[in-house]
Amino acid sequence: MKNFNDIYEEIYKKCAQPMEQMRKTTRNGFVIVFTISIFLGILLTVLTSYSIFLVIAIVIMVLYIILSKNNKKYRQFFKQNVVKTFIKEYSQTLEYIPERGISPRIYANGEFESYDRYYSEDLITGVLNDKYKIAMAEVHTEQESRDSDGDTTYTTVFYGLFAEIQFEKLVATNMKIRKNKMISFNKKEKIEMDSGEFEKKFDVYSIDKIIAMQLLTSDIMQMLIDFSKENKLIPEMTLKGNTLYIRFATGNMFEPKILKKSLDYDTLKKYYDTINFTLGITEKFLKNIEETQI
Q1: Is 96 helix (H, G, I), strand (E, B) or coil?
Q2: Between 267 and 225, where is the model more confident?
Q3: Measured between alpha carbons, how far is 31 from 279 in angstroms, rounded to an integer?
Q4: Could you give the CA distance from residue 267 to residue 288 in angstroms, rounded to a whole number?
Q5: CA 250, chain centre distance (Å)
Q6: Which of 81, 130, 216, 241 is exposed most, by the fewest CB atoms within 10 A?
Q7: Phi, psi of 98, deg, nearest 5
């Protein structure tokens, strides 16, 4: 498993030049379309004839089609070359499949929230330590609502990276680690941990307090605290049976930048840190599960 700087250097040598050319073409296209749209909008307010309106509509449509093609090409190159190289350089046991995702059935098993619409793409799948199956993907869930006029709107509930890790040993409990809330809606299962710093950021729920305390050791709690501080993300986890579910509200991932450099260092470092944390904390959890008499 390579460190981030080595991975970044490898990607930069392979992809920097073509990526920057495509990014500038896409960015310039956005600027041109925006500028022409403003100009034509001003012209339309002055000249209101139907023929002028038709010409303006056709021009904007043609520019939009050209821009969409450039953006799609840029996006596909980024995923097939930058992200795929990044995942393979990180670990030879992982495979990146951008057009696939994780099924809503698997996500629902994590018991995170209810939703009406579900999207998933950018699947990363493989085997950890030659025995644990892992699947990660971007997930986007939305809640549907209707106003008094019957108009439908959709509000994002969760948008980020979700992972499912399967292992052999069966754990006879259901444990949840969630972002801290001012009011607990499940007081019977809520567990008070012996770390005040951890309690400020996280809530822990379990049907078996003893097993939860055995598995959620001080080093794992510190990993969760450190990651949340360094990355401004609160990981949420569910342990059920022989499966561990982890998610991070990262927002849109594995998409190229248009206004920033295409191989923005901080963006790729965010990918690395999130994936690295997922695998690292998984290994610690699984080590505790294997060593604990449960």
Answers
A1: strand
A2: 225
A3: 41
A4: 32
A5: 5
A6: 130
A7: -60, -30
The helix or strand, by DSSP H or E, that contains position 196, with its residue range, turns out to be helix 196-201
For residue 19, what pLDDT band results from cuts at 50, 70 and 90? Answer: confident
Residue 39: pLDDT over 70:
no
For residue 61, what pLDDT band results from cuts at 50, 70 and 90? low
For residue 149, count CB atoms less than 10 angstroms from its CB and return exposed for 0-12, middle for 13-18, buried for 19 or more.
exposed
Instruction: Report the run of H or E that residue 121 belongs to, with start and end.
Output: strand 117-128
- In DSSP terms, which residues pair with 133 in a beta bridge? 127, 166
The better pLDDT of the pair 62, 256 is held by 256
Instruction: Give 284: exposed, middle or buried? Use CB within 10 Å, 0-12, 13-18, 19+.
Output: middle
Q: Which residue has the tokens 């607990």?
A: 184
How far out from the chain centre does Cα 218 lie? 26
Residue with tokens 């695998």: 279
Domain boundaries, the chain: 4-88, 93-291
Residue corresponding to tokens 């609502």: 145
- pLDDT category at 57 given cuts 50, 70, 90 is low
CA distances (Å), 38 to each of 33, 45, 46, 56, 229, in order? 9, 11, 13, 11, 43
* CA–CA distance, 243 with 289 (Å, rounded to integer): 11
Q: HSE on the CB side for 108, CA within 13 Å?
A: 9
Angle (CA) 142 148 154, round 5° = 10
> How far apart, in whole angstroms, are the C-alpha atoms of residue 91 and residue 275?
11
